[in-house]
Design a protein that fits this description.
Layout: E1 2-12, E2 15-26, E3 29-34, H1 41-48, E4 56-61, E5 64-65, H2 71-77, E6 78-81, H3 93-98, H4 113-125, H5 141-154, E7 159-163, H6 171-186, E8 190-194, H7 198-204, E9 207-212, E10 215-220, H8 222-225, H9 228-235, E11 237-242, E12 245-251
Parallel strand pairs: 3-8, 3-9, 6-7, 7-8
Antiparallel strand pairs: 1-2, 1-4, 4-5, 9-10, 11-12
Helix pairs in contact: 4-5
């Protein structure tokens, strides 16, 4: 499985959001998509999914042009955890996670054995055992974030894209989420995660895709991508490495 942008450019109302960006994400790797606010991360994700029309270039999901796929075909190839995640009605946690099986055609409340097993596995991976019958409207922000991640995992698509999955989480649960995503990659998924936490990305990601002002800066392992000089240029921060740990010490 692979996710690929090739010379992808996006211009909206005269604003250049992506400039000839090329990168790829392959199976068994956890790849972090990083960059300052406005760097083009969400635009790149939407382009990969065929949700953002390209001005030029191409987006591929497992070798197929993303824009040519139907919503169901897309959902069977890649599970997407968007940045904006809302559940406005008071359904139970198990029902919410079961929504991840929608693309397989099973009616709600009547999951087949494979669907039910996928939901149970996702609940366990996201530390939601014991929450199954609680209403999603009764959960904290961090708990609800884990429900959304479990829904994405339940789809068992060969690729997973998560846009800022740790945004509402405390440090402990942020570690758990990244560890879960890395485990998904090791089990064979192609996993792309949008992150703002540079230290988390350095600790967990196999590769970093760094965007700045709509352009690709680098795609490389963390130590090669997040160098002191690159972070100074892109983020304007002082950074240093101590073995495999990245630390930030302030603005330049």
């Amino acid at each position: 499985m692979s996710l690929k942008l090739h010379d992808a450019s996006v211009i909206v109302h005269g604003a250049k959001l992506l400039h000839a960006v090329s990168f790829d994400v392959t199976s068994r790797k956890l790849v972090g998509l990083l960059g300052p606010n406005g760097a083009g991360k969400t635009t790149a994700v939407r382009a990969l999914l065929g949700l953002q029309p390209l001005t030029s270039g191409q987006a591929y999901l497992d070798g197929q042009p993303a824009h040519s796929l139907t919503p169901k075909q897309r959902a069977l190839r890649v599970s997407y955890l968007p940045q904006a995640r809302k559940l406005a009605w008071p359904i139970a946690v198990r029902e919410a996670v079961s929504l991840g099986r929608f693309a397989y055609g099973g009616p709600m409340g009547r999951l087949g054995p494979a669907d039910a097993a996928a939901v149970e596995d996702a609940l366990a991976r996201c530390s939601l055992i014991g929450f199954e019958d609680r209403s999603v409207t009764s959960l904290s922000g961090g708990e609800l974030a884990r429900v959304h991640l479990a829904r994405a995992l339940a789809s068992q698509a060969p690729a997973l894209i998560a846009d800022e999955p740790t945004a509402a989480l405390d440090p402990g649960h942020s570690f758990d989420v990244l560890a879960t995503l890395k485990s998904q990659a090791r089990d064979g998924q192609a996993v792309l995660v949008v992150l703002h936490d540079l230290a988390l990305a350095a600790r967990f990601c196999d590769e970093i895709i760094l965007l700045h002002q709509g352009k690709l800066v680098i795609q490389a392992p963390p130590r090669e991508a997040l160098t002191t000089s690159t972070l100074a240029d892109v983020y304007g921060v002082k950074a240093s490495w101590d073995q495999d740990q990245l630390s930030l010490s302030g603005r330049i």
